[in-house]
Amino acid sequence: MNDGVDGKGPAVTIQMEQPIASLNSPKAPLDGPDGLVPYDPLNQSPEQLVEGPLTSQKTSTACTEFWCHGATIFRLFYQGAIIAGIVLIVLGAVEPSNFQVLLWVGVGVLPTCYLIYLVDTFCFNRNLKYLSNVGLINGIQNHIAEVKQAVPVICWHMTCYHNETRYRRVSYQSNGKTCYRTESHTVRCNTWSGSQPFLFSSCWDASPPDMSGLGQYKQTRIKFYKTFAFEDPNTEMSFIAQRDGFVAANRWRDIHYDFTEEFTVPGFQTAVVASTTTERPFYLKKRYYFLAVLFLMELPYSFCLKKGCPVSRFTYKKIIRC
């Protein structure tokens, strides 16, 4: 989803989750997902929407994908902080007279970083999505066919609000006396929220016909993306008119507003694993993943998953007409 915008000014700035462009604008190519697949809504061929599995399972390939991912450095940092917190607690417990301060530092660092570690692992890490969506190649192909037949939904959401300054009286001690002071803080008050879908007459799918090369390896990770485009300028004009009309009809409800746009495709999954066999290696079993997470071995586990399962990318493309 796009970021919200402040409703003070008359203009509405929108950043789409997926690129949108008129079919009559071939000279303005758009960047594909993660900059991996460049595409244009007019001239985009099916081959540009699909990228086959990596051609090598060598350790160097897995290392490149592993270390070039920005989240790897972040996860390495806070997992190191967890280990440091454990060391500080042990030192403080063994020598409390000399390392009392380190003990309390470790008590503060360890649970905080471990909580961040768990939230990141189970809410933002793609590995758990892979392990939850492992299927045979035929099943994955059927899933792709179902999503290609699904009708997308584009919906706009809007929340109107204002900020209020509130005051509270707090007490504090000064020179043995109880004193009072007034503190102020600003809170956001939502007063209205609503949604409106984009109404169109029909749509058709311009995604690639299938995924090629899935049988090259026993297991292949697939990252899915989605995008949409307009069939003609009239559809684009209708889209803009409906969107701006929704904002104009409701922006007066309060001083500020947040506006977001959501593009969904029923059945869409961001990550799956296609397998040629029903037998799973250890790095595709959830119980081993949970054990690895528990004992701070998520990064080595992630490396094994990337090394054992080359990655492929597939983009669903919906063409909309009013």
From TrEMBL:
**Keyword Membrane (UniProt):** yes
Mainly localized where? membrane
Please give the family membership noted in the entry. Answer: Belongs to the TMEM151 family.
Q: What protein name is recorded for this chain?
A: Uncharacterized protein
Name the gene behind this protein: RvY_12185-1
> InterPro entries attached here?
Tmem151 (IPR026767)
Indicate where this protein resides in the cell.
Answer: Membrane
State which residue ranges cross the membrane. Answer: 76-94, 100-119, 288-303
Membrane topology category: Multi-pass membrane protein
User: Which keywords has UniProt assigned to this entry?
Assistant: Membrane, Transmembrane, Transmembrane helix
What is the organism of origin for this protein?
A: Ramazzottius varieornatus
